[in-house]
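re: ur question from yesterday

yeah so i grabbed the chain u mentioned. its 225 aa long if i counted rite. heres the sequnce exactly as i have it in my notes:
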Amino acid sequence: MASFILWLHGSGDSGPANESIKEHFTDPVFKNTKWGLPTAPSRPITINRGAVMPAWFDVTDVPITSQSVRHEDEVLKAVKDVHSMIDKQIANGISPTNVFVCGFSQGGALAIASILLYPKTLGGGVIFSGSMPLNPSIKEQVSPEATKTPILWLHGTDDKIVLFEAGESGSKFLKELGMNCEFKAYPGFGHSLMDEELEYFSSWLRSRLLSSGGVQQRRGCCSQM
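ran it thru and got these structure tokens back, copy pasting raw so excuse formatting
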């Protein structure tokens, strides 16, 4: 059965620049996996003195902490775009439980916002060095179906761009909603994607697909990583 991985890049990056992530998904489980690696619209970024670059929403301060304030209207506009991408794949026959929304930094923040506000349970979300971009009051808009989507949150303890405590705070918020959120700390890692994280990302998605029944495991192979 087909699956879909939507990868949302960080500010200043692009979708095609992240193509190499696919190299970590060589297991047969991913044989029928489709990838979406969109590039954010270009826009002026306040923290960079108005320089224009791809970004899902504006960045007004760095480092990002658990108390950082984002322009919520911009975040919600980006969420609608992500929902349209998800809806298109579901309309093409992919089960919502085989759809995974993932991202790094600002893309991770957008991923978690999109999952929380999506009306269906998805296969999962994976957040790398991300933060919670919405106010806590957003919990009133989170459906019971959305809270059933499992989350993997990975964060380096030496991240100087999105502070580690911002990741911890976001994970805590999800758990308070009753969500299954695995928070994985990487001592000494900064604000970048590391092979060790990507390998765990791949194994986590593999286990989710196998447990959902979205793929058939070959006889004689283990069902867990």
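noticed a couple things. Helices lie at 72-91, 106-116, 164-176, 195-212. also Strands lie at 3-8, 33-36, 42-45, 51-54, 99-104, 124-128, 151-156, 181-186.
anyway ttyl
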